[in-house]
Specification:
By secondary structure, the protein is α/β, with parallel strands linked by helices. The chain has a single domain, classed as Leucine Aminopeptidase, subunit E, domain 1. About 40% of the residues lie in helices and about 20% in strands. It contains five helices and six strands. The chain has a six-stranded mixed sheet with strand order 1-6-5-2-4-3, sandwiched between helices. Strand 5, helix 4 and strand 6 form a beta-alpha-beta unit. Helix 3 crosses helix 4 and helix 4 packs across helix 5. The longest helix is centred in the middle third of the chain and has 19 residues. It is globular, with a radius of gyration of 15 Å. Bound molecules: adenosine-5'-diphosphate. Adenosine-5'-diphosphate binds next to helix 1.
Length: about 180
């Protein structure tokens, strides 16, 4: 395990890190799963900021694999980085590249904001249907390669329950 990668269970909205990542949808207008939890915990300031981003930069929605930052509102984190994971089965072999891009683009956004720590949920593994084992390998590999380039940031993978954490740990063995 790369020493700057930490794996834990919990509610990502409670993380005391510079940036938490939201598994958003392209509308940026909120949704279910972790997206709903983040908007509920952070309050209306997040939705206001997302509306502004839609109006100014992404009138057609945030493309899959891209990431943008907003305030974290009432949460302890300073920023929410919204990224849009691929819907499993909708993009063929490009899905893997798009999921990896969610992680690396979010990391670059966090570094540009001056963050030295970031927490990720298991992007695309809920409503978007990505197999957890495959998503784990892609997530871990993309983050590990990013860190091996010498970037200084601590990365937390936050799982909603113990069994998802166990699946992740098993899936990344040998990666
Ligand atoms: P997606 O639409 O990208 O699949 P989901 O929000 O449906 O996103 O699920 C992504 C992952 O986030 C799932 O593994 C889900 O269990 C997890 N999750 C949901 N709520 C939270 C939370 N509050 N903190 C951390 N992880 C969460």
């Amino acid at each position: 395990m790369h020493k700057a990668i930490k794996i834990k269970t919990g509610d990502i909205t409670k993380e005391k890190v510079c940036a938490i990542v939201n598994a958003a949808n392209s509308s940026l207008m909120g949704g279910g799963g972790v997206d709903g939890a983040i908007h509920r915990a952070g309050g209306h300031a997040i939705l206001d900021a997302c509306r502004e981003i839609r109006n100014s930069r992404y009138p057609d929605g945030l493309p899959t694999g891209q990431a943008v930052a907003t305030t974290a509102g009432a949460m302890d984190a300073s920023y929410v980085i919204h990224t849009v994971g691929p819907v499993f089965g909708s993009c063929g072999s490009a899905c893997e590249t798009l999921l990896a891009s969610c992680y690396t683009t979010s990391l670059n956004v966090a570094l540009a904001l001056g963050c030295r720590d970031i927490a990720f949920p298991a992007i695309s593994t809920g409503i978007y249907g990505y197999p957890k084992e495959e998503a784990a390998r892609i997530a871990y590999q993309s983050v590990k390669e990013f860190l091996e380039e010498g970037q200084k940031i601590t990365v937390y993978f936050v799982f909603h329950n113990e069994s998802d954490k166990t699946v992740f740990e098993k899936s990344i063995q040998g990666v």
